[in-house]
Amino acid sequence: SDRRYYRLLVPDMPSRALAVYPGPFDYATLTFVNVGELLLRMPLPVPAILAHEDDLGVLVQEDLGDVTLQAHLGAAPLADHAALYRQAVSFIAVIQQRGRDLASPSYAPYKVAFDVEKLTWEMDFFVRHFLEAYRGVRISDAGRTALRAELALVVEELAAEPRVLCHRDYHSRNLMLKEGRLYIIDFQDARMGPDTYDLASLLRDPYVDIGERATEDLVAYFLALIGATGREREFRQRLDLMALQRVLKALGTYGYQATARMNPVYIQYIPRSLRNVHDILHRYPRFGRLQEILGSHLDELG
């Protein structure tokens, strides 16, 4: 992000969060504001915007505190884990269902989508920043062509799926806990995409391993919420396909942060991400060739 955040403490008043942009903005055209208004109409809990100073590039927002879902899970009993994840999953169902009802070109997310171009760019980002820059892999022209062909099969299938409204980065670090209630943050990149996108982000979260049993329960819960009970097997296959693409893109981001931004904080999440990729590749024979190519460069996927 190119934004900086500060907490404003004033005696006898609730604290405020200041989002400071790199330069002046037009409040009326800020995507964060536009998407926030859409989510509020659903209604979903997002931080309130209390004031803005366009010339200074400052948004004054409700202070949600410091506790992300990821941080809370480290200290909470297992019963809390289940309840909070069910709440998080229910928000995805609302985003999809109410997102369909409120669809309008006046909202930014309805004008962008996870199409072939966007998904392909993300897979190229993985190759460039994780395989090559971070891991130092040298890929031959023939190897690059073969890898791109296999990734294209994933991309084309995902891009062809019917699209719903997606948060786009829905995981335990973008869900805040305040006074026992979850709030959604970092939603400015919302766009249209597969109905598995946000759920894959949440359940194959590199920051938290919720386990296979919990994953199965939450998939069933989500399908019940959207009225699609009985589709678990078909949906799980599509969910794994989405998770594969999503985690590969995340690995590209971690590689980029480590090599281009000199930010090592995400390196700790690479092993879990590679385990997720390994498990999906080995679960389906259809990914045999992709597993062979990636496994030749990454021992963790062999």
How would you summarize the topology of this molecule?
Blueprint: E1 4-8, E2 16-20, H1 31-41, E3 49-53, E4 58-62, H2 69-73, H3 78-101, H4 116-134, H5 141-159, E5 164-166, E6 175-178, E7 181-184, E8 191-193, H6 197-203, H7 212-225, H8 232-259, H9 270-283, H10 288-295
Antiparallel strand pairs: 1-2, 2-4, 3-4, 5-8, 6-7
**CA radius of gyration:** 20 Å
Span of the ends, CA to CA: 34 Å
Number of strands: 8
Q: Order of strands across the biggest sheet?
A: 1-2-4-3
Q: Count the helices. How many?
A: 10
Secondary-structure content class: alpha+beta
Mean pLDDT: 96
Query: What is the string of SSEs from the N terminus onward?
Result: EEHEEHHHHEEEEHHHHH
Q: Sheet bearing the most strands, described?
A: 4 strands, antiparallel
Provide the helix percentage. 40-55%
Spans where pLDDT lies below 50 across 5 or more residues: none
Bin the strand percentage: 5-15%
Shape: globular
Describe this structure in words.
The structure is a single chain. By secondary structure, the protein is an alpha+beta fold. 49% of the residues lie in helices and 11% in strands. It has helices spanning 31-41, 69-73, 78-101, 116-134, 141-159, 197-203, 212-225, 232-259, 270-283, 288-295, and strands at residues 4-8, 16-20, 49-53, 58-62, 164-166, 175-178, 181-184, 191-193. It has a 4-stranded antiparallel beta sheet with strand order 1-2-4-3, with no helix packed on it. Strands 5-8 form a two-stranded antiparallel sheet. Strands 6-7 form a two-stranded antiparallel sheet. The two termini are 34 Å apart.
